[in-house]
Amino acid sequence: MGKSAKPQPDLLVSGIFKVSTYGRRRRPNQSSSPSEYLSRQNSSGPWSAEKVSDQPLTRCKKLLPMKEPEDTNLRELNDGLVTLAEIFPDVQVEVFREMLLSFGEESRLAVVTEALLRHKAHWVRGRQKKCNLNIQRNQGINQVLPGAYGIVATEDRFRSASYKEAVENLACQEFDLSQSTIKEVLAGANYSYARAHPTLVALLLKSWRFSISSLFTGKKLVHTLDASNHPLVSWLSKEHGSQVPTLKSSGCPELDKELLETIIIPTQQKIRARQEQTDYKIARDINRAEVERQNGLIDCECCFSSLSFEELTACDSGHLICTECIKRSLKEAVFGQGWQRYINSDLGSLRCVAATSNECLATVPNNLVRQLLSMDETDKKLIQKLDEKLTEETLIKSGLPLIRCPFCCYAEVDELYLPQVQRAWKFKRFGPLPIYIPIAFTLCIVTIPLALAIFILFSFLFYLFLRRSFGRFVIHHFRESVLRIRRSRLSLKFTCQNKYCRRISCLSCHKGWSDIHICHESSLLALRTQVELAMSLAVKRTCPSCNTSFVKSSGCNKLTCVCGYQMCYVCRKDISKGEGYRHFCEHFRPKGNQECGECLKCDLYRCEDDELVVKKAKQEAETRWMEKEGSRLGSNKATRKMLEEKWKRDGEVSLFTSRLKVWQKWRIPDWQQVTDTLVGFLVMI
Questions:
Q1: How far is residue 477's CA from residue 489's CA, in Å, rounded to a whole number?
Q2: CB neighbour list of residue 190: distance below 8 Å, 6 or more residues apart
Q3: 606 in a domain, yes or no?
Q4: Which pathway, metabolic or otherwise, does it act in (predicted)?
């Protein structure tokens, strides 16, 4: 049985939103809101609707308890958790929590780090991080929950004793489960209420208590964190029948803040959006009714519908166009084939669509279009798509090198940033000077002719350097070489800055990023599967009669299957139709393990080299895979080079063949490679 929760004092968290009113400018005898206007209308009139509260939701009063002082030991544990997560990004956070609690307080972080470096497999035991791309696609972002601990999510941090007690009391109050079950689920979720809630809901649905109670009461369990049935959320009635969600204190400021951010604030946002939408529709209908009563309707110059002035917008030439015509034009431009017809790319605005005798060359200002389409969520998404397409076209026209997010339209200029302190280059130091003095002196004595030639060459180059054109040429290529070297040292991790995306990807393979990322992992996994299958098929034999696979361990090459089928192990021929042992060579040979000089039949006891067969099958499978995937990996030179070097390293070739391949592989480096080598060797970058 769940233990009874102590009654907690009510903590009022009022709404933070304010109702906005729409319509024309208020007359002296006109009500201040659409709801009051409807309340004084005759019930039999043409405009009757459900009464909507015109009282604004009060701003959120932060009546939460004062933040309790954080324990010093708890702060040290969380700081150590962040440090270990940065040092070992491939290990799950629960491993660090276990190790930090198992060691003493003195030099705890250093001891845990050394233990992981020395005996990582013993402590981790397979608990490495794995990339869950499904979660990334569902969430749309790659981020940790807000908190003061950076890369470690809030749910993974060490929790205080007051938070654990408050979460346990709340779970016992909300779920009719045994206390031991609740404690076990909370311990597995690190006492995170948001993380343990789905598991507790699933367990409650399977319990007999909930089945019996729901049979008589008809109560349905809410699967998500919803304010309608939460035990700590109450609805405070306001004037005109409106209700505001309020939060009761759980006794723990940390849990109260979590419930406020996950339940109260999202609920208030939904209330505000629903209330604004309702008030807007009522205000629009009221305004249209008043204008129609006063004969003030205006015709749209595109579809010629009679509308109020607030439902129209105008181009720069004064043509009035209604909202529906604006929407249809934008949809055709964004999703259809009317981009060039309806959008002025130079101004980034909508062309005038008025059906006049002469074509109007004016445009509708962007601020008017956005103001007209700012109330409906569908219209906001249409504006967002328009902005994305305008941005894409602008980036294409700019001709700049871009880095793109593979999951959305976000792009950045591929420009390397050089801080001011790193623009003054210094030459590298090559160790103590006395060591190189005798070596340099010996080389100068031995190679005097070469030194003179080098001196003359450098004198000529110095003379050319004094000339302005050659100096600019050298400086330009030196800077280009520095940029290439610095770019090659950059990380491949790319974070999208689009607020609707925020996903992390790889600049090389354009896939989702994980803490341990392998480029073209799916292709390499397919290569491994194909190679392993080819190697196994090269060794084993399969009976064509019953499809039984087997491998010979010893004996002769005449194999008999359990179904009675007989075959030769060397050439896989069917020898069950009276051929038998006559299939094999019967000539005498003075030395064994030699080929017969009189016939070409298979040997009865001579076995083929399995290692050579397996290696040949492996190379053939890799070649077939490369021919198939070569077009997909053609732009990734690093992956192709890695695979080719791996194949050459695994293969066994003769000495002459290996030298020939090395000579064929070596190529004369181009001037960029030579420049990069010299700059990287001499200059500190």
A1: 19
A2: 94, 97, 155, 156, 159
A3: yes
A4: Protein modification; protein ubiquitination
Helices (H), 20-160: 34-39, 72-87, 93-102, 108-118, 120-124, 133-139
Residue 77: is its pLDDT beyond 80? Answer: yes
DSSP letter at 260 equals: I
Percent of the chain with pLDDT over 90: 1
Amino acid at 238: K
Which amino acid does the sequence have at 560?
A: T
Q: Which amino acid is at 620?
A: E
Looking at residue 329, its amino acid is S
3-state secondary structure 345-365: CCCCEEECCCCCCCCCCCEEC
pLDDT score of 35: 44
* Per-residue model confidence (pLDDT) at position 418: 56
Task: Show which of 140, 159, 178 is a domain's final residue.
Answer: 159
Structural domain containing residue 109: 71-159
Q: What is the DSSP-derived secondary structure letter of residue 189?
A: T
439 belongs to a structural domain = no
Q: Is residue 469 included in any domain, yes or no?
A: no
Residue range 53-75, pLDDT digits in tens? 333 333 333 444 445 555 778 88
Label residue 372 by pLDDT band (50, 70, 90): confident
473 lies in some domain: no
DSSP state string for 400-446: --EEE-TTSS-EEE------GGGSS-EEPP-S-HHHHHHHHHHHHHH
Does residue 654 carry a pLDDT above 60?
Answer: no
Mean pLDDT of 413-423: 61
Q: If 0-12 CB within 10 Å is exposed, 13-18 middle and 19+ buried, where does residue 640 land?
A: middle
**Amino acid letter, 683:** V
d(CA 92, CA 95): 6
Domain count for the chain: 3
The amino acid present at 69, given as its one-letter code, is: P
Q: Does residue 633 surpass a pLDDT of 60?
A: no
Of 52-61, 378-387, 427-436, the poorest mean pLDDT is in 52-61
Kindly write down the DSSP assignment for every residue of 166-179, as one continuous string. HHHHHHHHH--S-H
Residue 59 · residue 268 · CB < 8 Å: no
| pLDDT for position 413 | 83
